[in-house]
Automatic annotation (TrEMBL), chain A:
Keyword Transmembrane among UniProt keywords: yes
Native organism: Streptomyces coffeae
Superkingdom, natural source: Bacteria
InterPro entries assigned: Di-haem_cyt_TM (IPR016174), Mopterin_OxRdtase_euk (IPR008335), OxRdtase_Mopterin-bd_dom (IPR000572), OxRdtase_Mopterin-bd_sf (IPR036374)
All residue ranges annotated as the Oxidoreductase molybdopterin-binding domain in the record: 290-423
Pfam family, one: Oxidored_molyb
PANTHER family: BLL0505 PROTEIN, PROTEIN-METHIONINE-SULFOXIDE REDUCTASE
Region called Disordered, residue ranges: 197-221
Top-level taxonomy: Bacteria, Bacillati, Actinomycetota, Actinomycetes, Kitasatosporales
Keywords carried by this UniProt record: Membrane, Transmembrane, Transmembrane helix
Protein name: Molybdopterin-dependent oxidoreductase
Membrane spanning stretches: 21-50, 88-108, 129-149, 161-180
Length: 426, 150
């Protein structure tokens, strides 16, 4: 285009920032080009971690079809795998929010370009951009709301965030394919280090070009490109500081000033992060009292055990973390209890035990029944835990007994376990 | 090669592949409350492009208009306001107490610290920015040799 774009007849453009231009857009684009694939891959891994192909009870998107092509048995080594995956997914997503906003700010004149549709190709591309911008904002919004338990979105988080991610990525691939050469050209056109030495007094608009990003009527600069990049970087850094500690734990947890899991809920052996309190999911005192029984089933065999009887079985220890899909995790806790493999042996599965269906006495809330795969049952660190850090489990941590499995999503470490059915995962 | 379509055949092929995937995921996404979900996706783009962005651009212009010269001082408002606004944008459900009861019953933690902390962080950001401005003015006071502009 040789003529600068105008808004309607005779109006000058309202987009007058002298900083807008292909170089600035490309810098933000490059950051997102690295970050968004990481978000996508960690998101897909998180879905695989639930072992959704093992049992319908693990799968919140059972009609996924080909979109689950990559699923695999989630490993139990290393035990911190899920915590790191989710820490990266959630923290990186939050840290990229200012970059996403800056990228959208930098390209806003394109929304109002005229003619709105130049050709069929241009029209289709703009339709894809709606999926890119709408899908991207949808993914960031649902993620940010979900980690704060603010379930205002229209449906269950899992299908919205999973299918939304595929729609967003379908548009990302098109956008990258069509814009990558231009991004490389733009980045080569200016020297980043020189740009970082340019103060506001020497800041000039990028040369007019055909991208439609450079303002045809630029205002005098009040900020350098260095300043703009610095401001966005400061935003990302601030979000990192007030968020990351909840995924690291220890003394750094308190630095996560605005993150949901930024303090320990108490002191002592049970004073670590809780996902659902007993009161919050309707667990009553008698659910945990002397009437509590553990039912262990395998084939046609069934055992009913009191807590005392479970305590008399061989007890083993394991140092394992809890890591939540919401991105927070705990450091390793010292769990003690009965190996899941030993419980399987009690009902006849002596060698190579199968997977297990775990049912909580919890009355409501999702994931009160989960299926664990055979590799998880066979790991000697997978326990039906009765104690943690030397003390009995507290009610909020699943007294009388809970599951702890290395590397599994926190929600699959079922609390207030009532029944274990080996070989009945489907 | 471009013809009446307006781009190369590869362009069309790429977009059709993308739309096929979008449709495949889309029918699954929209199998629930399809209207609400479509509204959220299209609404997110419209809300950002036609409300949020124009609002902060206008706010920026309004502050520039009322501030005394030199114009670069606006950055001492702009940067802390941007960071504070960003923290609010991301953590508003906790800061505004959208789900206090659910949060407290889930985590066993009290929800009342978030608004205080956000206000404190905001105060610190503006205070640091003001101190920085004071330092710049002091260094640029008459009688001092002019320094390289930052």
């Amino acid at each position: 285009m040789s003529n600068p774009p105008h808004l309607g007849r005779g109006h000058r453009t309202p987009w007058r920032s002298p900083l807008r231009g292909p170089w600035l857009t490309s810098v933000f684009g490059l950051v997102l080009l690295v970050g968004i694939p990481v978000l996508f891959v960690t998101g897909l891994l998180s879905y695989a971690a639930y072992n959704p192909d093992l049992s319908p009870v693990n799968d919140k998107t059972p009609d996924k079809g080909l979109l689950g092509f990559y699923l695999f048995s989630w490993p139990t080594h290393p035990s911190w795998l899920y915590g790191v995956n989710q820490g990266v997914h959630v923290t990186l997503g939050i840290v990229l929010v200012p970059v996403l906003l800056a990228k959208l700010w930098s390209v806003i004149p394109k929304l109002f370009e005229r003619p709105a549709v130049r050709s069929v190709a241009h029209g289709l591309e703009r339709l894809s951009l709606l999926a890119l911008v709408g899908g991207g904002l949808f993914e960031f919004a649902t993620g940010v709301l979900n980690v704060q338990l603010d379930y205002v979105f229209p449906g269950s988080f899992y299908p919205l965030h999973f299918y939304g991610a595929w729609i967003f990525m379908a548009a990302v691939v098109v956008h990258v394919a069509l814009r990558f050469p231009r991004m490389v050209r733009a980045l080569k056109g200016r020297d980043l280090r020189a740009e970082l030495r340019t103060p506001v007094s020497r800041t000039r608009p990028e040369p007019p070009d055909d991208t439609g990003l450079v303002s045809p009527d630029p205002a005098p600069p009040t900020m350098s490109r260095r300043g703009a990049l610095g401001m966005v970087g400061a935003g990302s850094a601030a979000l990192l500081v007030v968020t990351a500690g909840q995924s690291i734990g220890g003394p750094l947890r308190e630095t996560a000033l605005l993150a949901p899991h930024n303090r320990e809920p108490g002191r002592g052996p049970n004073g670590f992060q809780i996902n659902k309190t007993a009161a919050g999911v309707g667990i009553r005192a008698r659910d945990m009292g002397s009437d509590w029984r553990l039912v262990v089933r395998g084939g046609d065999r069934e055992l009913v055990l009191t807590r005392q009887q479970v305590l008399r079985l061989p007890q083993h220890g394991a140092r394992l973390p809890i890591a939540c899909v919401e991105g927070w995790s705990t450091p390793d806790q010292r769990w003690e209890g009965v190996r899941l493999a030993d419980l399987a042996a009690l009902v006849g599965h002596r060698d190579r035990p199968p997977g297990v269906l775990v049912e909580s006495v919890q009355r409501h809330g999702s994931f009160r029944t989960v299926a664990l795969r055979d590799n998880q049952v066979r790991d000697p660190r997978s326990l039906l835990a009765l104690k943690v850090n030397g003390a009995d489990l507290s009610p909020d941590h699943g007294y009388p007994a809970r599951i702890i499995v290395p590397g599994a999503p926190g929600v699959q470490n079922t609390k207030w376990v009532g029944r274990l059915s080996f070989g009945e995962t489907l | 090669m471009r013809g009446r379509y307006g781009a190369s055949p590869w362009h069309l092929l790429l977009l059709l592949c993308s739309f096929a995937l979008t449709a495949y995921a889309g029918v699954r996404l929209l199998s629930g409350d399809w209207f609400g979900i479509a509204l959220w996706i299209v609404g997110a783009a419209l809300l950002h492009d036609l409300v949020l962005l124009p609002l902060y651009a206008l706010a920026d212009r309004a502050v520039s208009a009322v501030l005394p010269a030199p114009a670069v001082w606006i950055n001492h408002i702009r940067v802390p306001a941007f960071v504070s606004g960003l923290l609010l944008l991301v953590w508003f459900p906790l800061i505004l107490g959208e789900q206090t009861r659910r949060y407290e019953r889930s985590t066993g933690l009290s929800a009342d610290i978030f608004p205080r902390r956000w206000l404190l962080i905001t105060a610190v950001l503006f205070a640091v920015s003001a101190l920085w401005l004071a330092l710049r003015r002091w260094r640029a006071r008459p009688g001092r040799a002019p320094e390289v502009s930052p």
